[in-house]
Automatic annotation (TrEMBL):
One of its GO terms (molecular function) is carnitine O-palmitoyltransferase activity. One of its GO terms (biological process) is fatty acid beta-oxidation. InterPro entries: Carn_acyl_trans, CAT-like_dom_sf, Cho/carn_acyl_trans, Cho/carn_acyl_trans_2. This is Choline/carnitine acyltransferase domain-containing protein. Pfam families: Carn_acyltransf. Belongs to the carnitine/choline acetyltransferase family. PROSITE patterns: ACYLTRANSF_C_2. The keyword Transferase applies. The keyword Acyltransferase applies.
Length: 640
């Protein structure tokens, strides 16, 4: 991801004023294609091959063949026909929102990921009050830039030297909106990305509802919600004209909150957002009925939540835990995103996932990191304004019924039980880096993915369903497609690198195999990014079939379908100089959640698991050994 540059502005309320309107490309974004049914079936079978025995595979092959020529064809025709009538969106968008919003499990751990910011290089700016004021102000500047439609649109530049500049913006601006995407793509090999998720970044929240949660936006909102010690504080950060309050005033309000000498609440309400959605729905209703509708609305309508924590944390393990789940009292997991700040100024974002994906959050993340570090608004010598913060800041009080009080106590027990059942470890491997992998002429991502395959095989002598998230933001309302990194070739690599097997292949045979793995992985990545994976297509067909009623086609009842969707290895990566680390919990009890980064100076990964199902420490060791073996082999050294 590149930092976009655009016209700077002296207006303190804006990050910049882009030459190109934020929505310049939105109308001309390409429509997400529905892959050909035959291709989906072929890709699906290929992905199934390494996961099944010969016998299971031939059964699945027959089922898929039958589907392709019968129910599959009819369903697909219907899917295509419906899609033709809905050119303003894509065939999987609604079903994907529903997948998130109908999920009744808790969103803490099961859905919300986190991304942690690098420290400000100037240590004196990592003070909790200074940094939270700066982050708050930069976030508001980002929000105002976005709302005024002058946030530089997100563009994937294939050749940044040629297109990530203002000449490109001036030229493309002249192309009428219905054609703008094609102009950028054809003239500059620059691919504008969908920006439809961004309107839910701010003043947005998920509300628990029976059966299906709701996404609520409060566009006229002017206040922020701060959580500290489990208490909610609100104050206006924009004046009546929508201008950002003077930064020294914001600083004064935050200082007031940070020095409020209040005991943590006996019944910390925020823990309810970590409950399963049905329990939370009922308790929320009870809270509303107990006369708190307006107070609760203050929380829902806040521009975002700032969580000011009391603990000073330094080691990676404690930081990851704090950013992924915290102690249950000081997070509001329903908010579109929360900005988290430890007492020693370590910062992160934890985000609710139903409304949007990593690409949108990362853009906000990168821009505020850049603004706070390059263009800080308050400094170590800044004095908070002499204003009446006591009058401006309101601590919210809730009247809780006995049912809710009991619900909170029960939720705290559930929260502690669930979060303490999660294990976490990380690896920062410096002996082989992105630069080395490029020197071997391999795709760095495939190298990393192969190390996960080899590590799991080393640990359990098995190849399992693996999910790698891939953005499809190049398409209108595009979200993600799945890359399937476990292939017959990676399975072969796992076997060839298996030192316990007795006969070791030659270095050149091993190198050849790694190259093949890389080639296949790159092809799968390209396909997924172009909307040519099989997962979303089958998901769309299954959703349609469920909607139409009757028995589901056998392909969806096949245990192999359940099994490939039981993603034991769930992986996601992002690269940005603003990110220190990031992660998420496993998506199944017996899985690993793998957030990884590929950097010029290290290969890193943060991994979660639920013991005793999996042993994350041992897995990390296996990744390290796999990376060492891969590196050695690519350097021409034999396996030891
Ligand atoms: O695929 C999807 O539709 C969404 C996925 C779901 N899932 C997380 C289950 C895969 N969501 C995302 O991919 C968003 C994840 C955002 C967090 C990514 C973390 C990346 C960490 C990079 C840095 C690691 C460096 C470690 C150094 C020790």
């Amino acid at each position: 991801m590149m930092f976009s540059s655009s016209a700077p502005t002296s207006d303190p309320d804006f990050l910049h004023k882009s030459i190109l309107p934020t929505d310049h490309f939105q109308a001309s974004l390409p429509h997400l294609p529905i892959p050909k049914l035959e291709e989906t079936c072929t890709r699906y079978l290929k992905a199934q091959r390494p996961l099944l025995t010969d016998e299971e595979y031939s059964k699945t092959e027959k089922i898929v063949d039958q589907f392709k020529n019968n129910e599959g064809r009819t369903l697909n025709e219907e899917l295509v026909a419906t899609d033709k009538k809905n050119k303003h969106t894509n065939y999987v968008s609604e079903a994907w929102f529903d997948m998130y919003l109908k999920d009744r499990r808790a969103i803490c751990l099961n859905q919300n990921p986190f991304m942690a910011f690098n420290d400000d290089p100037r240590s004196e700016y990592n003070d909790q009050l200074i940094r939270s004021t700066n982050f708050l102000v930069s976030s508001l500047r980002f929000m105002k830039t976005l709302q005024a439609n002058v946030l530089d649109p997100e563009v994937f530049h294939l050749n940044p030297a040629k297109s990530d500049n203002n000449t490109f913006r001036r030229v493309v601006r002249l192309i009428p909106k219905p054609l703008a995407f094609y102009g950028a793509a054809l003239l500059y090999k620059a691919y504008p990305l969908d920006m439809s998720q961004y309107h839910r970044l701010f003043a947005s929240t998920r509300i628990p509802r029976p059966d299906k949660d709701e996404l609520l936006s409060s566009p006229n909102s002017r206040h922020i919600v701060v959580l500290r010690k489990g208490h909610f504080y609100v104050f206006d950060v924009l004046d009546v004209n929508g201008k950002i309050l003077p930064v020294e005033q914001i600083m004064s309000h935050l200082k007031y909150i940070l020095t409020d000498n209040v005991k943590p609440p006996e019944f910390p309400l925020a823990v309810l957002t970590s409950q399963d959605r049905d329990t939370w729905t009922k308790l929320r209703q009870d809270i509303v009925e107990s006369g708190n509708a307006e107070t609760l609305n203050k929380v829902d309508a806040g521009l975002f939540v700032l969580c000011l924590d009391d603990e000073e944390l330094n080691d990676s393990g404690s930081l990851c835990r704090s950013f992924l789940h915290g102690n249950g009292m000081n997070r509001w997991f329903d908010k579109s995103f929360s900005l988290l700040m430890t007492a020693n100024g370590k910062a992160a974002v934890n985000f609710e996932h139903s409304w949007g994906d990593g690409v949108a959050v990362l853009r906000y993340f990168n821009d505020v990191f850049k603004d706070t570090t390059k263009n800080a608004h308050v400094h170590p010598d800044t004095k908070p304004a002499k204003v009446d913060s006591k009058a401006a800041v309101k601590r919210l009080e809730f009247q809780l019924s006995d049912t809710t009080k009991q619900g909170i106590l029960d939720s705290l027990i559930d929260f502690n039980k669930t979060t303490s059942s999660l294990d976490m470890d990380f690896i920062k491997y410096e002996a082989c880096t992105k630069k080395d992998i490029k020197k071997y002429k391999l795709s760095p991502d495939s190298f990393m993915q192969l190390s996960f395959q080899m590590a799991f095989y080393r640990q359990y002598q098995k190849t399992v369903a693996t999910y790698e998230s891939c953005s499809t933001a190049a398409f209108k309302h595009g979200r993600t497609e799945t890359i399937r990194p476990a292939t017959t070739m990676t399975q072969k690599a796992c076997q060839m690198f298996d030192k316990s097997s007795g006969v070791l292949p030659s270095v050149s045979e091993l190198q050849q195999c790694v190259r093949e793995c890389s080639k296949i992985h790159s092809q799968l990545t390209k396909e997924a990014a172009m909307g040519q994976g099989f997962d979303r297509h089958l998901f769309g067909l299954k959703t349609l079939s469920t909607k139409m009623g009757g028995e589901l086609p056998e392909i969806f009842r096949d245990p192999a379908y359940a099994s490939i969707n039981h993603n034991i290895l769930s992986t996601s990566t992002l690269s940005s100089s603003a990110v220190m680390f990031g992660g998420f919990a496993p998506v199944v009890q017996d899985g690993y959640g793998i957030g990884y980064g590929i950097d010029d100076s290290y290969l890193g990964s943060i991994i979660t698991s639920y013991p005793p199902h999996r042993k994350v420490g041992q897995f990390v060791q296996c990744i390290e050994e796999s990376l060492t073996d891969l590196g050695n082999v690519m350097e021409g050294k034999p396996l030891k």
